Amino acid sequence: xxxxxxxxxxxxxxxxxxxxxxxxxxxxxxxxxxxxxxxxxxxxxxxxxxxxxxxxxxxxxxxxxxxxxxxxxxxxxxxxxxxxxxxxxxxxxxxxxxxxxxxxxxxxxxxxxxxxxxxxxxxxxxxxxxxxxxxxxxxxxxxxxxxxxxxxxxxxxxxxxxxxxxxxxxxxxxxxxxxxxxxxxxxxxxxxxxxxxxxxxxxxxxxxxxxxxxxxxxxxxxxxxxxxxxxxxxxxxxxxxxxxxxxxxxxxxxxxxxxxxxxxxxxxxxxxxxxxxxxxxxxxxxxxxxxxxxxxxxxxxxxxxxxxxxxxxxxxxxxxxxxxxxxxxxxxxxxxxxxxxxxxxxxxxxxxxxxxxxxxxxxxxxxxxxxxxxxxxxxxxxxxxxxxxxxxxxxxxxxxxxxxxxxxxxxxxxxxxxxxxxxxxxxxxxxxxxxxxxxxxxxxxxxxxxxxxxxxxxxxxxxxxx
Length: 466
What we know:
6-stranded mixed β-sheet, Protein-Tyrosine Phosphatase, Chain A, Udp-n-acetylmuramoylalanyl-d-glutamate--2,6- Diaminopimelate Ligase, Chain: A, domain 1, globular, single chain, 23 strands
């Protein structure tokens, strides 16, 4: 029996037995905490039309379908259930450690400027033009929400969708069944090792987007060591961007007013200006511009598309009394180093950094972040981020392991107080970086999300001082 036959009369698909209703399909997924196979009886009792499993459970029921990989089956079922939307859209998937959010916003801006109505799926929101869809808080949703989002955007008039594709999503096959137009790789650095356990596993998860999915173009940062490995793996099928890439970065300049990029591709020179700030923007811009060119967007539309792009929580700037405050999502050692290097080159005087690290996540990156921040800052205010189930001071202690000169460190567990301390110490010419949370509007503590946004705290504090 093929998938379309199985879907006849089906009213929904889920991997949560509690959500099963009459004529639903239940897919038993083995997760890190729970195994869906333990809830097959419950799904059957709730009226499941079909139940997909990977192993023999000793149950005799004609509704049980055994497959080799239930995660793949889940993706294929969800894709078919929602009418195979990715085949009717230009779907662009961007993966990597840093730069995904900015790059997807740039591509969205370029395509919309060219008249290609484009949706966006990622860390900040799932959006099509002015409409926000939000089914869950993951960067990349589960298979049902993913294919449903593509279908809904298609029905709302989208012609393309650009999405951040996380390593967790690739490892868990959340976007399985998707037909991509373009897949892109930004870079790979230390992150998510609580889940992947090693950089090699992390890399292999990212590699899946390029080796296991159907797509037209693979765009890869060849200046990144892991990007080089992807290029080698693809054996001539990758289109590279970078200082020696097929899409070659000739010159790049950035200051607090924006960035200027000069590149060469297929014998033509392109010069672009953007409001985005930071040395790392050379790569985000290059990937987005290359994507636009491959999709047939003319150079004028690309230039206009990248000129002014707003990316929530990425290098957001606020002006104090003679000093500057920057809010950024940087929450990995590499991202923190990249933004601090850019700030260091642009600063006239001191750099004051406020940051913490997330709880219940990769502990090994905490001292690395401490070391990076110490090396590139004049003063550190170490505080809480999203501690989740951990004690904030335990996380702070892990960060401090990587710091040698404690004389430049102020510890303040309360994030609002920490931000206010940094602003009170800032003098004319200084730059204050508040890193780690960016666009987030909450702080997660012991299972509860409390309203909290760095930018709002900063604006309130600056208005009081002014």
